[in-house]
Specification:
Layout lengths: L7 H12 L3 H14 L4 E7 L5 E6 L9 H4 L24 H8 L1 E7 L6 E7 L2 E8 L4 E7 L6 H5 L4 H18 L4 E6 L5 E3 L6 H12 L7 E8 L2 E8 L4 E2 L5 E5 L2 E3 L2 H11 L8 E2 L1 E6 L5 E2 L10 E2 L2 H19 L6 H10 L20 H5 L21 H8 L22 H5 L2 H4 L6 E6 L3 E5 L3 E6 H17 L6 E11 L2 H9 L1 H6 L3 E4 L4 E8 L7 H15 L5 H16 L9 H13 L13 E5 H7 L4
Parallel strand pairs: 1-7, 12-15
Antiparallel strand pairs: 1-2, 2-6, 3-4, 3-6, 4-5, 7-8, 9-10, 10-15, 11-14, 12-13, 16-17, 18-19, 19-20, 20-24, 21-23, 22-23
Helix pairs in contact: 1-4, 2-6, 6-7, 8-9, 12-15, 15-19, 15-20, 16-18, 18-19
The structure holds adenosine-5'-diphosphate and magnesium ion.
The site of adenosine-5'-diphosphate (ADP) has 20 residues, from helix 2 and helix 4.
Amino acid sequence: MPIRQLSETMINQIAAGEVIERPASVVKELVENALDAGASRVEIVTSGGGLNLIRVTDDGFGIPEPELALAIARHCTSKLVEDINDIRSLGFRGEALPSIGSVSRLSIRSRTASGDSAAEIGIEGGRVLPVRPAASNRGTTVEVRDLFFATPARLKFMKGERAESSATSDVVKRIAIAFPSVRFTLAGTDRSTLELPATDDSPEGSLRRVAQVMGAEFPDNSIPIDAMREGVHLTGHVSIPSFTRANALQQYAYVNGRPVRDKLIAGAIRGAFADVLPRDRHAVTVLFLSLDPAIVDVNVHPAKADVRFRDPGLVRGLIVGAIRQALADAGIRSATTGAAGMMAAFRPGAASYGHGGPANGHLSYDAAYRASGSTGFDPSRSPQRPLDMQFEGADFVRARNGDFDEPDQAAFDAGSLASADARASQDMPAETLLGAVLGAARAQVHENYIVAQTSDSLIIVDQHAAHERLVYEALKNALHSRPVPSQMLLLPEIIDLPEEDAERLAMHSETLARFGLGIERFGPGAVAVRETPSMLGETNVQQLVRDLADEIADNDTVETLKERLDKIAATMACHGSVRSGRLLKAEEMNALLRQMEATPGSGTCNHGRPTYIELKLADIERLFGRR
Ligand code: ADP
Ligand code: MG
């Protein structure tokens, strides 16, 4: 066959194959056009999941009648100004409308501010219909019917109506977050109506829009992010560690106002939360990056949802650093959503109390009240120097207190909390401890919960969760100072593993050795463990090694080395912590409380759950109807 030029319609249909994947992609393109036209209201209507009808109406500046034909012609745009390196609008390729028009029946009705009347143009499967007069207000209405009628192959790949309409909702929500001062409505026979009233462009307005989209509980369970590095500005909100989702769908990211789905940003978020979330939980995040358009490429794919940064390391570092800092500053806040249920559980049976029990609005058990906006634990409020605990963390604490010099290998026997050096708390009358943040330990109940008393509250500590966190922090700090002491096993433990796992572990043997885990290859499909970290004491080496293999397999490709080490530390900490069921003496309990006070981040365990809760005396009195 001779070489021939493709027809215009064919070219547009080929382009549509990339740009218009499904109805939601049409909605995205049309809404972007409305926003580029300066709209303050955008109304979207769909039916049949968007396959029958998509109609987007805006009150933007409209298209002058003589330009209607250009709007649906390929490579015609009013947006791209001279320089592909300086893109400030959402659209710039001039191919959305002709692509959509080549696979559907599309009409555009528009009126400009100066135009006396509206005009309309149509295009059906690539065939352009003549411009004719029409009636409408200022702005533009684009209607797309029978999407993919001209490309039945694509039509076959559509999921059900439900799936398509929910993909459309997602697109609208995603973009609406970036434009809080625009009112959006999404309605149709195939969905329940979504209404997002305009807020404003201030940080508060932006957060209100986020709450409209993500749910009213998000603002109370999130912390603000605002950081700048080398001209790149990061703002937004991230959820606190106890407010998570089973998938990453609720992570919204924007680059210069453009919604993006970017691996680098997703990886940075994962990295930033690696310390405080288990592998299968995901933070809820809304992050806006703004930077010079010249140092980010948005022209990576026709759908414009991918970006490339000139300096990916800078962006990643900024995100990880800013989120970690914000989490550290927010200290020990736990989710407020749990609090209501918790208080309900505390409330006495309402039926037997004439006045319906305590007034709930005022009940606050939540650590959030104490920490709100501040840094959580304030070690300086602790009435005494933190105790010399038996594990490495003590060195860190001492280092901060300026006496890091005493080598203390013997004290490293972390396995036994029972041998805690508890001098200080013995010397200290319990009454003086009442002023400490976590107070004086009074009892241990159900072999895992330490009940403590401060001057004005009751504290309940989950000893396992708390100790796990302390061990983790200690391990992390050890990692950055010197190798973790290890103990030789009398007989090396041989562990049979899938060959890939054995290989992975061997590749990380140096790192593991720094953690005190001496591991080496032992023929095909096996490793030998000769040394384990002393602080773990008696431990199930088989299980630990398998967990580590899983950890490495899961995180190798995306995590930086440090995050990987911290994750390994978290896994180790989990194995080495005081299990629930362990009886503690009063000095041991107090030692644990003091250690928690002295350790940043100890308000949540490695899995993001709170390590302690606080019930104010005032609230207890309300519970009993004394107030
Ligand atoms: P692009 O957005 O990349 O410019 P499109 O094919 O999406 O390409 O749109 C082509 C042109 O049509 C735009 O550049 C704009 O001038 C005009 N246009 C499309 N939709 C609207 C709208 N809702 N309001 C005003 N002008 C519009
Ligand atoms: Mg466009």
